[in-house]
Design goal:
By secondary structure, the protein is an all-alpha fold. The protein has one domain. Helix content is 79%, strand content 0%. It contains 6 helices and no strands. The longest helix has 26 residues, at 4-29. The protein binds protoporphyrin IX containing FE.
Length: 140
């Protein structure tokens, strides 16, 4: 398996392609009814996932943990459930899916708070959090 940062970026950019095609379809038909669902697909599916991918690329000790894979699965599940859920809620077909997707989105973000607080950001941060465990060369 490629590293988790790659998974976040490739999946997030794929969500963006779908979100952009949806945006073009909304513009072409002049029907913007589902624009909040389109917005959430792009913002959680692309922007948040790219932020997460950047974090894991900068912080290999976090990327190597099992929690990173759980974080990825939770985020993808949140997008895949929340976006159709918002479309259904707008169309008057029920709010259950939107509620379930919202809970997954919050859990994914809470897991990110925990991961960032535990590992810090970047290798240098980890060294500062655990002095003596990682040998740092003195600056020239
Ligand atoms: C090909 C690219 C895109 C097209 C053609 C497009 C098109 C649209 C259209 C037609 C609307 C409805 C505007 C309105 O009713 O006032 C909209 C709303 C929105 N779009 Fe896009 N969009 C694109 C890409 C993106 C991207 C990349 C993002 C975020 C990263 C994004 C975020 C949003 C948001 C937040 C809204 C407002 C949602 C709401 O009304 O609640 N869009 N877009």
């Amino acid at each position: 398996m490629k590293n988790i940062a790659t998974w976040f970026f490739v999946t997030g950019a794929s969500f963006a392609l779908i979100g952009m095609a949806w945006g073009i379809q909304m513009s072409a038909t002049q029907n913007h009814t589902l624009s909040p669902a389109h917005g959430h697909l792009n913002l959680i599916g692309f922007v948040a996932m790219s932020v997460f991918g950047t974090y894991y690329a900068l912080t290999p000790q976090a990327a190597a943990s099992r929690l990173a894979k759980i974080h990825f699965a939770l985020t993808v599940a949140a997008v895949v459930i929340l976006v159709p859920g918002i479309a259904m809620a707008i169309s008057g077909s029920g709010e259950s899916l939107a509620k379930g997707g919202s809970v997954l989105a919050v859990l994914a973000m809470a897991l990110f708070v925990y991961t960032a607080a535990r590992n810090g950001v970047g290798q240098a941060e980890r060294a500062a959090l655990a002095p003596g465990k990682i040998h740092m060369e003195p600056a020239e």
